[in-house]
Design goal:
The protein is α+β, with helices and mostly antiparallel strands and 287 residues long. It has helices spanning 23-34, 42-50, 58-86, 89-95, 101-104, 122-138, 142-153, 168-194, 198-211, 216-228, 232-250, 256-267; strands at residues 2-4, 10-13, 16-17, 39-41, 105-108, 111-114, 120-121. The strands form two sheets. The chain has a four-stranded mixed beta sheet with strand order 3-2-1-7. A three-stranded antiparallel beta sheet has the order 4-6-5. A hairpin with a 5-residue loop joins strand 1 and strand 2 (10-13).
Length: 287
């Protein structure tokens, strides 16, 4: 089974889509796919579908959605024997061990489990690449970190579950996944800055600072890239815009780390900010 949730929902069994078009079964599949190979409690699925106000028939209705998903899975599985027969005796031998729809979408005590059978998951691959990238950053391997984190971020084709009408559970998971994406993005930009790619980052950071108007770390990275590119005044303007936004919307002043960066830009030449750390080795820009 191949599972994609970092963008539009796409779940394929035997290379064939098992993603329903109806909104409610789509929600069920989305939550099961995100937690593939783990039991998703019935209570979590009911909460997702009816937001704390389930009808009396909630469990029965949920079972109906599961049956609809199994019908799609069965259709996909039915094509496997034909492919195996075309492959000859070896394929026929493999058919004997073919899975059933109930073995793919499994009923277990208290919930359901989507069995990926060792297939792919873009979330798992993102977590693997990002985790390896973070370890490369910690080891000072900035080229490796930049490459790995760029590969991880390339798995995203849009917001998670972009075409799913999410409920309480999926909305929470979407926010969590977006935070993991922002963390990876922050570290990839940090690695690129360490490699002296400040000019290459300017266009991207212009967009990011506009999109995430109160995200201090992205603004700090934008300030640093501008300053290293000889655009000191614009770097200071970025700080003032962020400060105004934080004060108006949150009633907060910028963090001490960001204020230190602003003072460094005010007092120093571009060459003295080659490293975005203070005297103690701490990052000047952090959320």
């Amino acid at each position: 089974m191949d599972i994609d949730v970092l963008g539009a929902l796409a779940v394929r069994e035997n290379g064939i889509s098992i993603t329903p078009t109806a909104p409610k079964p789509r929600q069920v599949l989305a939550l099961l796919a995100l937690h593939a190979d783990q039991v998703v409690p019935v209570s979590a699925l009911i909460e997702e579908l009816w937001a704390g106000e389930p009808p009396r028939s909630a469990r029965t209705t949920l079972q109906t959605y599961v049956l609809q998903l199994r019908a799609l899975i069965a259709t996909a599985l039915d094509r496997e024997p034909a492919a195996a027969e075309a492959a000859g005796a070896a394929g026929a031998a493999g058919t004997a061990g073919a899975r059933t729809a109930k073995e793919v979408l499994v009923t277990l005590p208290g919930g359901y489990l989507l069995n990926s059978n060792g297939g792919t998951s873009d979330v798992r691959e993102f977590d693997r690449l990002a985790g390896t990238g973070y370890r490369a950053m910690d080891a000072g391997d900035f080229p490796g970190a930049a490459r790995l984190l760029r590969e991880a971020l390339a798995l995203w084709s849009g917001p998670a579950f972009a075409d799913v009408q999410g409920g309480v559970q999926l909305d929470m998971e979407t926010r969590r996944l977006e935070e993991t994406r922002l963390c990876a993005l922050d570290q990839r930009i940090e690695a690129d800055l360490r490699l002296g790619r400040h000019r290459e980052l300017l266009a991207e950071l212009t967009v990011l600072a506009s999109r995430y108007r109160t995200h201090e770390n992205l603004h700090g990275q934008f300030m640093l890239a501008l300053h290293r590119s000889g655009r000191r005044g614009e770097a200071l303007d970025v700080y003032q815009r962020l400060r105004g936004m934080l004060v108006r919307e949150l009633g907060l002043e910028p963090s001490a780390a960001l204020r230190r960066l602003q003072r460094s830009i005010l007092m120093a030449g571009p060459e003295s900010l080659a490293e975005a750390t203070d005297a103690g080795g701490e990052r000047l820009v952090r959320v």
